[in-house]
């Protein structure tokens, strides 16, 4: 019985740690901590090894990725030179691939792990499920997603000489 209790305590600590992590993600702002368990249940965890491709430019997007640990590079192939150029690095607490939650369209960049990286994936189908089964949570995520994408678009349009 003692080993079982230790396992349960470790399991509970791991769950609580993940819930604390999710609470700090802007996408989940406004969702109460106790409701985040439903979000956690909707996420899929995956670890990528250094150099491993998460998705390639042109792949159909079906999920958003939240970096739990490690680091991801986003790279885009320049049409003129056909060379791959890193356009961003994604660190723990940040996410990428959010357009896949709105539409299943080709990815605009390639994502790969710069080091061993653990991510949480939120698939579009899981967000759709949350919208129906837990509307308060699903609508909150959708509203945050709209705000975040609007801010990113505005920032991109305000860059001097690039629009």
Summarize the structure.
The chain is built from four helices and eight strands; from the N terminus they run H-H-E-E-E-E-E-E-E-E-H-H.
What this model shows, in words?
By secondary structure, this protein is α+β, with helices and mostly antiparallel strands. The chain has a single domain, classed as Sandwich (Jelly Rolls). Helices cover 38% and strands 25% of the residues. A hairpin with a 6-residue loop joins strand 4 and strand 5. Helix 3 (124-133) packs across helix 4. The longest helix is centred in the C-terminal third of the chain and has 23 residues, at 135-157. It starts with a helix and ends in a 6-residue tail after the last helix. The model has no long low-confidence stretch (mean pLDDT 89).
What's the mean pLDDT score? 89
The radius of gyration is: 17 Å
* Arrangement of strands in the largest sheet: 1-8-3-6
Approximately what portion of the residues adopt beta-strand conformation?
25-35%
* CATH architectural grouping: Sandwich
Return the CATH class.
Mainly Beta
CATH topology: Jelly Rolls
Distance between the termini: 64 Å
Q: Outline, from the CA principal axes?
A: globular
Enumerate how many helices there are, as a single number: 4
How many strands in all? 8
Structural class: alpha+beta
By oligomeric state, this entry counts as: single chain
Structural domains: how many: 1
Low-confidence segments? none
Biggest sheet, open or closed, and with what strands and sense?
A: 4 strands, antiparallel
What is the N-to-C succession of helices and strands?
Answer: HHEEEEEEEEHH
> Could you name the CATH homologous superfamily?
Jelly Rolls
What is the helix content?
25-40%
């Amino acid at each position: 019985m003692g080993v079982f209790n230790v396992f349960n305590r470790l399991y509970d600590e791991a769950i609580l740690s993940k819930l604390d992590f999710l609470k700090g993600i802007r996408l989940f702002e406004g969702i109460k901590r106790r409701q985040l368990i439903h979000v956690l249940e909707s996420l899929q965890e995956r670890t990528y090894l250094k150099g491993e491709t998460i998705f390639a430019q042109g792949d159909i997007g079906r999920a958003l990725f939240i970096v739990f640990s490690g680091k991801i590079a986003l790279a885009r192939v320049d049409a003129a030179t056909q060379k791959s150029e890193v356009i961003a690095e994604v660190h723990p607490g940040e996410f990428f691939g959010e357009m896949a939650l709105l539409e299943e369209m080709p990815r605009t960049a390639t994502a790969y792990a710069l080091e061993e990286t653990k991510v949480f994936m939120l698939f579009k189908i899981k967000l759709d499920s949350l919208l129906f089964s837990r509307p308060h949570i699903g609508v909150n995520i959708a509203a945050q997603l709209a705000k975040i994408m609007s801010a990113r678009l505005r920032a991109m349009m305000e860059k001097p000489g690039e629009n």
